[in-house]
Amino acid sequence: MKLSRRLKRIETFIPPGSRVADIGSDHGYLAMDLMVNRLAAHVVATDKNPGPVKKLKRNIARRKLTGAVEVLQTDGMRHLDPSVDVVIIAGMGGLLIRDILFESLSAALEVGKLILQPMSQSDKLRRFLLDHGFMICEEAVVFEDERFYEILVAARGSQRFENPLDFEISPVLIRNLDEDGRLFLTHRLALLGRIAKDIEENSKDPVKLRQLRRRMGKYEEVLSREDQYREGHQST
Ligand SMILES: C[S@@+](CC[C@H](N)C(=O)[O-])C[C@H]1O[C@@H](n2cnc3c(N)ncnc32)[C@H](O)[C@@H]1O
Q1: Domain boundaries, the chain
Q2: Closest protein CA for atom 12 of ligand 1
Q3: Measured from the CB, is residue 47 less than 6 Å from ligand 1?
Q4: Whose CA is nearest to atom 1 of ligand 1?
Q5: β partners of residue 86
């Protein structure tokens, strides 16, 4: 079983010996890999829908892991055992992840570590986390199969972002920007550039253009700071 780069990167955030819940596990690849490679002490793989749960059980049985990976059909973090210390919610929209956390807020605040991998709207998820008693401890971006995947690691805590654009261009990601993270920011900047060009040529909406240029300016600032930092490190 070869795990994707995205799921492998998620694994790197799990402290050894953790009791893990993989919410919305679907195929169960991550949950199974954690047990096969002894990267967790216990894993429960959950899913809300009967189809994925059937697939999950079939995959687990095929790899002779029945009993080693617990399976639970449930919505979100309902019925989460309090002994779970790492919760993974990956491969879902940012708003769905937000709703799952909000619905079980007091339980989510008790979990040692949340590893969240939103497929969209990560800015709204960051805002939700900071508004509801969490802090974002680490972030990463993985580039795989022609797309970027954002990973947010959160825990109970208090954190403020000074600039509204920080929810889109996270200071936590920028802190440890690697090659995939840099590519991600460059890609986003190019995307915004194309949108700005389209507005300039068509609607010419001055408010939208101003907003876009402000966002582009922030990406440019971060990328040029990174360039300078790299150059400084290469010459020492
Ligand atoms: C695209 S799959 C992601 C699978 C895996 N986590 C990954 O990252 O590769 C999303 C899964 O989440 C499940 N799901 C959606 N809403 C859910 C909820 N509220 N609670 C639990 N599972 C949910 C779906 O049934 C589906 O199997």
Answers
A1: 5-176, 180-235
A2: 24
A3: yes
A4: 91
A5: 20, 113
pTM of the model: 0.96
CATH number of 5-176: 3.40.50.150
Angle at 125 between CA 120 and CA 130, to 5 degrees: 160
Can you spell out the DSSP letters for 69-135? EEEEE-STTTT--TT--EEEEEEE-HHHHHHHHHHTHHHHHHSSEEEEEESS-HHHHHHHHHHTTEE
Structure tokens given for 133: 């008693």
Going by alpha carbons, the residue nearest to atom 15 of ligand 1 is 24
Q: What is the pLDDT of residues 46-87, one digit of tens each?
A: 999 999 999 999 999 999 999 999 999 999 999 999 999 999
With a 6 Å cutoff on the Cβ, whether 25 touches ligand 1 is yes
Residue-wise pLDDT for 168-213, tens only, equals: 999 999 999 999 999 999 999 999 999 999 999 999 999 999 999 9
Task: Tell me, using a 6 A CB cutoff, whether residue 101 lines ligand 1.
Answer: no
Q: Is 33 in the pocket of ligand 1 (CB under 6 A)?
A: no
